[in-house]
Structures are given as C-alpha cells and as structure tokens.
Amino acid sequence: MATAPTFADVIRAQKTIRPYLPATPLHHYPALDRLLDAEVYVKHENYQPIGAFKVRGGINFLAHLSAEERRRGVITASTGNHGQSVAYAAKLFGARAVIVAPEGSNPVKVEAMRGYGAEVVLFGSDFEASKRHAQTLATEEGLRFISSGDEPLLIAGVATHTLEILEAQPDIEVVIVPLGGGSGAAGACLVAKSINPLIEVIAVQAAGAPAAYLTWRERAWCSADIHPLAGGLATGEPFMMPQQLLWQYLDDCVLVEDQELLGAMRLLLEKAKTLAEPAGAAPLAAALRIPKRIRGRRVALILSGGNASPDELRQALATS
Questions:
Q1: Given 70, 119, 138, 159, which residue has the most CB atoms within 10 angstroms?
Q2: Residues 308, 175, 32, 257: what is their CA dihedral angle, to the nearest 10 degrees?
Q3: Which residues make Cβ contacts (< 8 Å) with residue 148, sequence separation at least 6?
Q4: Dihedral sign, Cα of residue 16, residue 20, residue 23, residue 25
Q5: Do 174 and 299 touch, CB atoms closer than 8 A?
Q6: Residue 95 backbone dihedrals phi, psi, to 5 degrees
C-alpha cells in the first residue's frame, strides 16, 4: 500500500485544485445554535459543482496522471459521489472514465455521472461487489483503477475542506465529519490535528454499515453487513490507508440510525435552508446524539453532499 498523505500533501493539493474549485462557504446558523446550545458552523460541500466534497479528491488525482494514463482511462467503483468526482475530473482533463455502481444506486447520482461523460456500469447488490467487478474490468481493459479510499491523492484532496474551515474560522473546537470509506474523515483528522492538536474530531457512521467504525474501534480489519439508508456511508469493508490516520488522530466515532439521518436532513432544510443527502446530514445527527459534549463549544459540521434522491427527500419530510 502507498504511504498515507501528510499535511504538506494537503497544502500541495489545495494549490492544485484551487484553479478549478473555489472555497465552499462556512456559514453560521443561529437556529442551529439554539438547537444544539453551541456555536454551529456548516461547511457547505453540497455547494460543490457535483454537490459533494469528493470532487476535491478527483481533481487532485486526475491532475497528477500522465497524458498516457489519461488516454488509457480510469475506472472506479462508487455508490455515487466518488463516481461523480472521477467523472467530473475526467471530463475536465480529457480522460475516459468508467464507473461501476451497485444496481439500485441513487438515480440522481447515476444520471449525474453519465451527464459528465462517464460510462456507468451497474453491477452487484452492494459497493463491495461493484468494487470487485471494477478491479476485474481494470485488468481486462488496461484501465487505471482508482480506489475510493486507499489513494493518497484523494485523501489529500478531500482534506482541503477542513483546511478551508480553519482558514475561515481558526477558533473551531470540534469538527464532526461523516465516515464512509474514510477519506473525508481521515483528511479532517490530518488537517485539524496538524494545525491544532486540541481540536476534537468526531466521525459519524451509519449503524447499518459499521465496518469503518469497527475497524477504528478494534484497531484491526473488520467487515460488516451493509444495510444503511445513506449510500455515501455504505461500505462493507474498511479502507486501511484512511484507517492509519484515523487510528492516529480520530477522537471518537458515533453511530446513527437511518431515522436520525432523515431527521437531520429535515432540520437542515428548516434551520439552514439547505439540502443534505443522508450522509451529508450525518454530522448534525451525531451532534444531536452528544449534546453535552458540544454544549457551549464552537462546532463545524461538514455537510459532505446534497445529492438526495426524491425518495430520500420524501422520507425526510415525513419525519416528525
């Protein structure tokens, strides 16, 4: 396995992606302050051109490929946002992109991947099956396989969201970040602890897909069944490069249920006037679980994406 990225790699990634992506807003919402009895800021990665933070990693990765690698093309597996990231970046740099997604994937994300010019292959019942098929196709067709978690350039790229948070609000005390494959959470840890070791970083994963949480807790590779609402959190096996950073830096991890994710989506619509997909609403769901821990503190919630399907939005609006 390649070496995990360093803070210096994140600084370089920021210089690489800045010509293509402006910083996303970090907004303060008094309505969320009252809800959580804290000073709450939302990092709006749902404002990215693909509606999710993953685009940072995709651009950083494709920018570093050779002309020959871009000509041959890239392939990856994704439940949606990582695939959109690769598709978007491939179009930007003139590369062929093939995305393998599980059958029954969020149609909003599948349509977006195709809209950016990627070839989308629907295969398997879950992410792990899609990943194995993507690796097979990579060998058969000579494509560059992109792991959605074990790629230093991806982690360094997505970590720039936390760098922007602390540039805009250096006094943040707690960062709460979604945990799926782990690239975003690992990047948040790396940046926050490099800048200020006193910043508390809390990850949040769906209780229906706890592989990354179990691996972090046990300090050993653990798989788990996948039954979450949130496609962005639906990984059944951990990525070990992000885990290297999580083991070193992560302060805590919280598991949340699907109904909590839906409730947090609705609250973000009401209190922050913004659309979050279930994974993007996870930090708010976690904050509601640990009110005493964040009370009176300055908290940043990383709203990782806003690609909610119509069905997810209907379910969120139906929550009380």
A1: 159
A2: 50
A3: 76, 77, 78, 82, 131, 154, 181, 183, 239
A4: negative
A5: yes
A6: -110, 150
Per-residue model confidence as pLDDT tens digits over 150-196: 999 999 999 999 999 999 999 999 999 999 989 999 999 999 999 99
44 beta partners: 303
Least confident of 36-40, 72-76, 223-227, 304-308: 223-227
Going by C-alpha positions, the residue among 69, 111, 116 that lies closest to residue 89 is: 116
Q: What is the pTM of this model?
A: 0.94
Lowest-pLDDT range of 5-9, 124-128, 172-176, 180-184: 124-128
pLDDT tens for each residue of 91-102: 999 999 999 999
Taking alpha carbons only, the member of 124, 66, 115 closest to residue 94 is: 66
Q: Which of 313, 314, 288, 292 is closest to 301 using CA atoms?
A: 288
- As a whole number of Å, the end-to-end CA separation of the chain is 46
What tokens were used for 16? 């690489």
CB 271 within 8 A of CB 301: no
Tokens of 5: 């990225």
Q: Which residues are the active-site residues?
A: 54, 304
Contact (Cβ atoms closer than 8 angstroms) between residue 175 and residue 188:
yes
The encoded tokens of residue 136 equal: 């097979």
Cβ-proximal residues to 141 (8 Å cutoff; 6+ apart), any chain: 73, 75, 98
Which ranges of the chain would DSSP assign to H, the alpha helix?
7-17, 30-36, 55-63, 67-72, 81-93, 107-115, 127-141, 152-158, 160-168, 183-195, 211-218, 240-249, 258-271, 278-289, 291-294, 310-317
256, 174 Cβ separation under 8 angstroms: no
